[in-house]
Write a structure and sequence with these properties.
The chain has seven helices and no strands. The protein is mostly helical. The relative contact order is 0.11.
């Protein structure tokens, strides 16, 4: 992984932590205000919902990058090396198709969202739902890179094992051992 890529995904990790913290703080303050003063901050409700949308869509790209999304390891684990490669390619092609649909749909919907404003903050709804462009484009780029490495034979054995549910230590420590899906590493 390149240095720029590591920096970018580290930035996204920090952004996700900030979004989660801001969302938790806004909801907590609103709960306390409603309980103690019988009123709340409508802006806080709205912005926490928007933060949740961004958190979900940005998180989808990060999770996909780290190959931590849901999979069917019990099915894939039944196949050998060649079968896993074929299933990996089919999976990536399906994911690429879905990401293209997401990106295209968000692009087509963007003018409609841009013409609407949020009721409390007045923020253009394009800022809220436009995050689908980032998510779709991010998943497309990651998938194309994976497909390129698959077609050119540059997929590592660890990735193939991971696709079948045998997870390696994500942080690359020396004492890492493969773990089957559903088992806990000790």
């Amino acid at each position: 992984m390149t240095r720029v890529s590591r920096f970018f995904f580290r930035f996204l990790d920090i952004l996700l932590a900030l979004l989660l913290s801001a969302m938790a703080l806004m909801v907590f303050v609103n709960v306390v205000m409603r309980y103690t003063m019988n009123s709340g901050l409508p802006l806080s409700d709205e912005l926490s919902r928007f933060a949740f949308v961004w958190l979900t869509f940005i998180g989808a790209v990060v999770v996909y990058h780290h190959r931590q999304h849901m999979g069917m390891e019990t099915v894939v684990a039944q196949f050998g090396h060649r079968g896993r490669l074929v299933l990996m390619g089919m999976s990536d092609v399906l994911i690429l198709g879905c990401a293209i649909v997401l990106t295209h749909g968000t692009w087509k919907q963007l003018p409609i969202n841009a013409s609407m404003s949020a009721p409390v903050s007045g923020l253009s709804m394009a800022w809220v739902y436009g995050i689908g462009l980032f998510t779709g484009a991010g998943i497309i780029v990651i998938t194309l890179e994976r497909l390129y490495r698959l077609v050119t034979g540059r997929i590592t054995e660890a990735e193939i094992r991971g696709f079948g549910g045998e997870m390696e230590d994500l942080y690359g420590t020396a004492e890492s051992k493969p773990v089957k899906a559903g088992e806990r590493a000790e």
